[in-house]
Amino acid sequence: MTHRYPPRQAHSAGCDEEVLMPRLSPEQRENHRQRIVDAAWRCVARTGYCDLRVEDVCAEAAVGKGSFYLYFKRKDDVLFALLEQDAAAIEERIRSVVMSNQPGIDRLRLFAQTMLADHDDKGRMQVRADLWAEMFCEKSVRERFVEHLDRRRRLLSEAIEAGMRTGEFDGGVPAETLARILLAIVDGLMLHAAAAPRSMRWSYLRQGVDGLLAGLRAA
């Protein structure tokens, strides 16, 4: 297949090198971009985001810098891509919990267990820890992160409200507040695991979370 090439241009990041890129279909462009994102996950798992270099991501993805800068203007854009991908996965889990036919307590237990299971994914754990750190320094990261937190809280609140309507949960504490607490527990455990993974005893932690959830049952 013969590709048509656009005029030679330097990429927008100000690098001296120039590249020729073939015209790609939207599907090809998305696959190419995802290849770079997948490489970034692997690099972050090894080095963390702070020490991540564009050169390392390009080498891992086997692409040139010109290709990288077609999709990402700067390194922070890669962090946003990882944030969006991780957030989408988390929100999909919460939706599956909300749509489940299981009793309310079992729904919340399933959510907590699947979230805590991520402790084996070093790249995902590192990205979440780095996101929390970047959130306090970069307004744009904080705003994007808060958007996702708000969506998770609303989705989880729906599952809790459903349990309150059936009388399974005590309605003394608002569903939104309980959702905030549950999300804070899960996020907090993930941050502790990223900082000191060897100190975590996950079987005990799961039992502890189960005990807390059992306390939500209506008397």
From TrEMBL:
A GO molecular function assigned to this protein is: DNA binding
Q: Which UniProt keywords apply?
A: DNA-binding, Repressor, Transcription, Transcription regulation
What's one Pfam family the UniProt record gives for this protein? TetR_C_6
Q: Which Gene3D superfamilies match?
A: Tetracycline Repressor, domain 2
Q: Which residues bind DNA?
A: 53-72
- Domain named HTH tetR-type: which ranges? 30-90
PANTHER family attached here?
Answer: HTH-TYPE TRANSCRIPTIONAL REPRESSOR NEMR, TRANSCRIPTIONAL REGULATORY PROTEIN
Protein known as? HTH tetR-type domain-containing protein
Its taxonomic placement starts with: Bacteria, Bacillati, Candidatus Dormiibacterota, Candidatus Dormibacteria, Candidatus Aeolococcales
